[in-house]
Amino acid sequence: MNPSRQEKKHWTIDDIDLDRIDRERVRQDEDLFYLVACASFVESGSDLYTHNLVEFYKGDAEVETWLREQWEQEELQHGAALRAYVEHVWPEFDWPRAYQGFLDEYSQYCKVELLEPTRAQELAARCVVETGTSTYYRALARATDEPVLKHLAGLIANDEVNHYKHFYQYFRRYRRQENIGRSRVFGTLSRRTLELKSEDADCAIRHVVMVHKPELAADPARVKELASRMSRTVRVNLKPETTIKMIMRPLELPVALQTLIEFPLRQFMQHVLLR
């Protein structure tokens, strides 16, 4: 895949002017703090998953190269930029200590044996994950009126959509090679959609809370309420139509059939993403 003009001129952390942050708009917003801090943890740990994927696609030079040279680098940049934002607005939060606790636990979830059984199915699963992350950051951009965070979330969302496009192209190639039918693809999409609110997000919340508010961490009910508030913030700021279309795309359904099932699928997505 030839890099697009946008990829050649990819943004850098230097493009994020932290001095322009309107701290008063976000400083007291606890839910926004957790949304950004948790995202910074998951993105910063993406190299663990990249190494598993590179091993899984060993021998496919195109996929290996893209994973190492673009996907991993951009994901880690997302984490670094989000961390910089957190540390600028909430300097009292001990990011390194909280992240180390997260990483110690999160690394247990990142194992090659936990990937999908075939390369095509794992690429379909990646499409679901990239759909979820692009949806998250677009919702985050809509949820805040702080201009620097809005800009940063928009940049990351665009990256995630571009990552989706790469994974989808590779998926189509492997689907032809493996000759897998829609039923297996649908099984992967359904399973991974149900897992969108997965252990990595739960892990991030736990470790952010343990350092930011230890007294809250000792009360699972209050942590659950916090997670619910974060979900509500995303819920009221997402556009489910785009999310549904992205998740459905690997099925490559005829237009008439896609139209027929779009409403029940939307109800299903509302239940999964918004619960």
Automatic annotation (TrEMBL):
InterPro entries: Ferritin-like_SF (IPR009078), RNR-like (IPR012348)
Annotated CDD domains: Ferritin_like
The protein's name in its UniProt record: Ferritin
Signal sequence annotation: none
GO terms for MF: oxidoreductase activity
Source organism: Herbaspirillum aquaticum
Domain of life: Bacteria
